[in-house]
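A.,

Following up on our hallway conversation. Structure tokens first:
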């Protein structure tokens, strides 16, 4: 697949867990805030909010933190107003990037993101130049020790669309709205799940073999994901695990 699942694996290997978790929770709180402002604070009638709450719980965000974010959005507690923006860009090697932003200062964030690409050899793209090739899917990564037949039977039984060998993991894809349902079903069947998320998946991939390009791509991914306003970064790079690990080290 694209480097998406490989990048997720690398992030887990090199993450400083507590620090990363705090930043992830802050970003999830923003997403909950925006979903609740747009569709109301009741998850039963707000599908977007319900999905983000499932994502937050899967990341071990507490119910209290989730409730606080909802209350800020519905006016029961004070909070900033965030604007949702999606930027499109290219990294070295012609790699496409889709960047989801939640910001309370559009000009500041735009300047910061442009600076990251300028410094690392990438460039911003016109609206529509990149987005057309991405679609939202559920992606579940399963420990490679699980026998292929066992996993295939389980994912087909619970509504997944496809599974593939992604090197060190099995990659299961499904409808984005079903990702946490399929994850729960796999875990109930004692199948070890490494991660599950609703994400944007590219219909085509760009092979990257140049070590310098690989290093620059990972630098861009790192700097974007460290930015408080950046919620998600999606890409279509295909880098071998060996080159990915060497570039990330």
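Then the amino acids I'd put at each of the 249 positions:
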């Amino acid at each position: 697949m694209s480097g998406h699942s490989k990048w997720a694996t690398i992030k887990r290997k090199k993450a400083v867990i507590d620090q990363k978790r705090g930043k992830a929770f802050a970003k999830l709180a923003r997403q909950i805030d925006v979903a609740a402002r747009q569709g109301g604070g009741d998850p039963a009638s707000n599908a977007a909010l319900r999905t983000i709450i499932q994502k937050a719980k899967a990341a071990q965000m507490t119910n209290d933190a989730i409730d606080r974010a909802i209350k800020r959005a519905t006016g029961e507690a004070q909070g900033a107003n965030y604007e949702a923006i999606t930027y499109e860009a290219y990294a070295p090697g012609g790699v496409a990037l889709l960047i989801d932003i939640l910001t309370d200062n559009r000009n500041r964030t735009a300047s910061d993101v442009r600076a990251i690409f300028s410094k690392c050899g990438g460039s911003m793209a016109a609206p529509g130049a990149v987005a057309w090739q991405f679609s939202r899917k559920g992606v579940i990564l399963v420990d490679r020790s699980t026998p292929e037949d066992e996993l295939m039977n389980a994912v087909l039984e619970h509504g997944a669309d496809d599974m593939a060998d992604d090197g060190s993991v099995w990659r299961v894809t499904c409808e984005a709205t079903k990702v946490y349902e399929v994850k729960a079903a796999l875990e109930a069947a004692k199948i070890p799940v490494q991660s599950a998320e609703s994400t944007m998946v590219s219909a085509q991939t760009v092979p990257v073999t140049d070590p310098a390009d690989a290093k620059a791509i990972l630098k861009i991914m790192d700097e974007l994901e460290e930015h408080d306003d950046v919620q998600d970064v999606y890409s279509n790079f295909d880098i071998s695990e060996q080159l990915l690990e060497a570039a990330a080290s």
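The chain is about 45% helix and 25% strand. Curious whether your intuition agrees with the design.

B.
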